[in-house]
Amino acid sequence: MGFRIKSTAHAVPQQVLTNDDLAQRMETSDEWIRTRTGIRQRHIATTETTTSLAVATAQQLLQRSGIAATELDFIIVCTMSPDQLTPSTAALVQGAIGANKAFAFDLNAACSGFIYSLSVAAQFFTEGTPYRYGLVIGSECLSRLLDWQDRTTAVLFGDGAGGVLLEHQSQGLLGQHLAADGSQAAALKAGEVVASTEIVNWVNYKLDPFKMDGRAVYRFATHAVPDSLQQAVASSPYALADIDHFLLHQANTRIIAQVAKRLGQPLTKFPQNMAAYGNTSAASLPILLDECVQSQQVQRGDVLALSGFGGGLTVGSQILIY
Ligand SMILES: O=C(O)C1CCN(c2ccc(-c3cc(CO)ccc3Cl)cn2)CC1
C-alpha cells in the first residue's frame, strides 16, 4: 500500500495583511503576535475562494508532473472552509480541470485533514486496485469564518491552498498514526448552526464564527503530537534519528519548539513558515512541503515525518520517503 509524491504545489491569495495592519483594526501588536505565535503576516482572500485556490493548485500540480487531468483517478480536497455544503470542492475542481475519469470528494478533519487525506488516498493504492494517480489538496479561506472582533483568534489564521499529486507505488507510506479526542470537540469549532425549537427557514440561518479555547488546544497539541509522531515512527522501519525533516501543522512556533524538545530532535529539522502565512489549517502542511521542495531543503530520498493536529480534536502523523 502506498504512493510516491510526484509533484507539489501551492496557491495563496494576493492580498497580504501584516501584524501592523491588524494592529490598526484591533487591540493587538506586532510584538505580541510575533513573539507568541511566530506569525508576521497572512494572505487573505478577496476575489479568491476555497475552490479557486484549489483549482490553481491542481493546475500547477498537473503542469509540474506532466500528467494530464484525464489520467487522474481521484481528487480529495481537505477543507473546513468550503464555499458551499454541496457540491464538494473536489467535484468543482474535477470539473474545472476536466479530470473526467476521477472520482472526487471532500474530507473535513480540520487541521489534520491533509494527513487523514493521505491515509485515505493510500487505501486506494493497494495491491490490485486499478488506480494510478490522485490529487490531495488542502484549501482554506478561514478569513470568512473568523470573528474579526476577536483578537485572540483573528490574528492566528490565513487563507491558502497546497497539494500533492500522488502516484501508486508498492512502498511510500511507511508508517502512520491517526487519532481523535471528541470529548474536547468544543475547544475548536466554526460555522455551528444555532439550534432552534421550531423549523428555521434556511434563509434565516446564521452560522457561528470560529471559536477556540486556545489553552485547551495548545495543551492537547503538546502531548498528542509527540505521541502521534512516536507511534507513527514505531510503525515504520525507522527511528526518530533517521527522520530528515519533521513537517508539522504551522499553528504556533512555540508548539513546534516544544514538540522538538519532547522528541529530543534539533529544531533545524522542523521547517517553519507560519511567519508568512499564519495558520492555514488543512493547507498548512502541503504549503510547507511545497516550499521545502521548491527551495530544495527537502530532496528526493529524504525521510519525512508529517503531523497535523487541531479541530476535532484530531491528530495524525505519517512517515514517508519524498
Ligand atoms: O497567549 C498565547 O500565547 C496564545 C495561546 C494560544 N495560541 C494558540 C493555541 C492553539 C493553536 C492551534 C490552533 C489550531 C487550529 O488550526 C490547531 C492547533 C493549535 Cl496548537 C494556535 N495558537 C496562540 C498563542
From TrEMBL:
Pathway: Lipid metabolism; fatty acid biosynthesis. The active site is at C111, H249, N279. It catalyses: malonyl-[ACP] + acetyl-CoA + H(+) = 3-oxobutanoyl-[ACP] + CO2 + CoA. One of its GO terms (biological process) is fatty acid biosynthetic process. Its main location: cytoplasm. GO terms for molecular function: 3-oxoacyl-[acyl-carrier-protein] synthase activity; beta-ketoacyl-acyl-carrier-protein synthase III activity. Signal peptide: none annotated. Coiled coil: none annotated. Residues 250-254 are annotated as: ACP-binding. Residues 105-182 form the Beta-ketoacyl-[acyl-carrier-protein] synthase III N-terminal domain. Keywords: Acyltransferase, Cytoplasm, Fatty acid biosynthesis, Fatty acid metabolism, Lipid biosynthesis, Lipid metabolism, Multifunctional enzyme, Transferase. Gene3D superfamilies: 3.40.47.10. CDD domains: KAS_III. Residues 237-320 form the Beta-ketoacyl-[acyl-carrier-protein] synthase III C-terminal domain. Belongs to the thiolase-like superfamily. FabH family. HAMAP family: FabH (MF_01815). Catalyzes the condensation reaction of fatty acid synthesis by the addition to an acyl acceptor of two carbons from malonyl-ACP. Catalyzes the first condensation reaction which initiates fatty acid synthesis and may therefore play a role in governing the total rate of fatty acid production. Possesses both acetoacetyl-ACP synthase and acetyl transacylase activities. Its substrate specificity determines the biosynthesis of branched-chain and/or straight-chain of fatty acids. The last Arg residue of the ACP-binding site is essential for the weak association between ACP/AcpP and FabH. This is Beta-ketoacyl-[acyl-carrier-protein] synthase III. It comes from Loigolactobacillus bifermentans DSM 20003.
